[in-house]
């Protein structure tokens, strides 16, 4: 037993030197990780505080969720209307799937206006329905006219009405005369 205790004390002394050397080597790493640990601790605390603030008012969360669902349905209605305009009756759920799924094409790095989203949408329409390529192209074209160009024109008319561009033109004519 005395020999065993002596052997353990020798092993401990040898390992103590190695442990101390390892501790000295890891001191700079420990200092860096302390900063990261403190930063992460603050971020997690901030996140949990924000979650608690959000959960305090469940009525507003429900209201925001309701408006979000209404917004997505309104965003998908032009595609549904495009199908109906070409006398193609589909489930209302199909546009609710197609619109977000075609957004995956935005991840592909293409120059703007090249039509990546439209090609993806047309391909998915062909794959998921019994439409031919020409009809699917017509649906996509109508959808883009309704969802993009229609909103652009309505926004322009809205701006003219509320900014009263006619008055601005009249004021500039007086200034140049």
List the helices and strands and how they pair.
Blueprint: H1 2-56, H2 58-85, H3 93-102, H4 116-128, H5 133-163, H6 165-176
Can you describe this structure?
This is Lysylphosphatidylglycerol synthase TM region. Keywords: Cell membrane, Membrane, Transmembrane, Transmembrane helix. Its main location: membrane. The chain is mostly helical. The protein has two domains: 1-56, no CATH class; 61-176, no CATH class. The protein is built from six helices and no strands. It has helices spanning 2-56, 58-85, 93-102, 116-128, 133-163, 165-176. Helix 4 crosses helix 5 (133-163). The protein is elongated and about 95 Å long. It starts with a helix and ends with a helix.
Portion of residues within helices: over 70%
Tell me how many strands there are.
Answer: 0
Strand content: under 5%
Spans of at least 5 consecutive residues with low confidence: none
Shape: elongated
**Average pLDDT over all residues:** 80
Estimate nothing, just give the exact number of structural domains: 2
What integer value in Å does the Rg equal? 32 Å
Major sheet details: none
Class inferred from helices and paired strands:
mainly alpha
**Number of helix segments?**
6
- In whole angstroms, the N-to-C terminal distance is 113 Å
SSE topology string = HHHHHH
Give a short synopsis of this structure:
InterPro entries: L-PG_synthase/AglD (IPR022791). By secondary structure, the protein is mostly helical. The chain has helices spanning 2-56, 58-85, 93-102, 116-128, 133-163, 165-176.
